[in-house]
Amino acid sequence: MQCSLASQPFLTLEATLKTRATVLTLVMLFVGLSICFAQNPNMGTWKLNDAKSKIPAGASKNTMVKYEAAGDNIKATVDGVDGQGKPTHNVWTGKFDGKDYPVTGDPTSDTRSIKQIDDHHLELTVKKGGKVTITGTIVLAPDGKSRTLTASGMDSMGMKMESVSVYDKQ
Q: What count of Cα atoms within 13 Å lies in the side-chain half-sphere of residue 154?
């Protein structure tokens, strides 16, 4: 009887240590992912600076872009206005690895790929039905306070378009 009582606390201690080790491992994983995303200067909320941008009249524009961690992916939430001034909202979740990931809420595209060249340069490709409709480059300013998207391609009406959108970090 005394032997069984002595073994019970040992099993509880062993289970407690395993639980603590598991929790500590998960916490460290979460902290590591957070640090990785926090170190990427492209993460955060970016607001369009109309005065510095060159967007053709009647073209749609993204007025706010937010990049945030979503597990081991990046979630981009984009708000703006279409060519008629109506509000737009779309979401892209993927990685900056140059692979196509689905876009929801955008009738002019169904996939988007973003490839990180280095901390200050990204390449963007937008597709609809597997066909490239827009390509662009995103350049982050050395101070990390602004970024410029230079894009070209076809608008929703099949017309060639080029734009330069400057965003300020919020």
A: 11
- DSSP code at position 97: B
- Rounded to 5 degrees, φ, ψ at 11 are -65, -40
Give CA 51 to chain center in angstroms: 25
Tell me: pLDDT of 65 over 50: yes
Note the pLDDT of residue 159. Answer: 77
Q: What is the pLDDT of residue 39?
A: 73
Instruction: Inform me whether the pLDDT recorded for 80 exceeds 50.
Output: yes
How many residues comprise the chain? 170
How far apart, in whole angstroms, are the C-alpha atoms of residue 61 and residue 57? 10
The C-alpha atoms of residue 52 and residue 134 are separated, in whole angstroms, by 21
Alpha-carbon radius of gyration of the chain: 23
CATH superfamily of 43-169: Calycin beta-barrel core domain (2.40.128.20)
3-state SS, one letter per residue, for 49-62: CCCCCECCCCCCEE
